[in-house]
Write a structure and sequence with these properties.
Elements: E1 10-11, E2 20-21, E3 36-42, H1 51-61, E4 62-73, H2 78-82, E5 113-122, H3 124-128, H4 131-135, H5 139-149, E6 155-164
Parallel strand pairs: 1-2, 3-4
Antiparallel strand pairs: 4-6, 5-6
């Protein structure tokens, strides 16, 4: 397990040498409400069976104003599909569901987050041409890229930071 310094690692596999052994697909996790100011879920969310339940658990575990950083492959990246343990293929807009712009379907969860930042990393070739800068320049640019160009100008990774509302 490659842990962030000072972090508490959670995994279901004892070989990972995690600090807390639990299955993220079986909430509630054995941790107290409001235990954390920050949660880093790096290449985790695409593996869970129920994204909504996992986000609700993250919400429960965060203190007021706490933040969660999610890093996941972009759905247009080859790695999103070549790993058989990936259950979800997500976009840079997938987590709007937990905010004010839930599209009318927010009744499936009471967990609310506000978007702090969203950054899409592109494949190195496109980054070298400066396209990553353009994609991340604003929400409209990112939406245009994701709707019309992302299968040509491939995304690599999405980094989303959300704050508990």
């Amino acid at each position: 397990m490659n842990k962030f310094p000072g972090a508490i690692g959670i995994d279901r596999n004892p070989a990972s040498r995690a600090d807390v052994l639990c299955d993220l697909d079986r909430p509630p996790y054995p941790l107290r409400d409001g235990s954390f100011d920050r949660i880093r879920a790096v290449h985790v969310i695409e593996h869970v069976s129920d994204v909504i339940a996992t986000m609700e658990e993250f919400h429960r575990l965060l203190a007021a104003g706490g933040r969660v950083l999610l890093v996941t492959p972009h759905f247009s990246d080859f790695s999103s599909f070549c790993d058989p343990t990936h259950r979800r293929h997500l976009s840079s807009f997938s987590f709007r569901y937990f905010g004010a712009e839930h599209g009318g379907f927010g009744y499936y969860s009471r967990a609310r987050f506000s978007e702090v930042s969203v950054r899409v990393r592109l494949l190195a070739f496109w980054r070298a041409l400066g396209l990553e800068f353009l994609v991340n320049r604003g929400r409209r640019f990112r939406r245009f890229w994701e709707y019309y160009l992302c299968f040509v100008v491939r995304g690599k990774v999405i980094e989303i930071e959300l704050e508990k509302a």
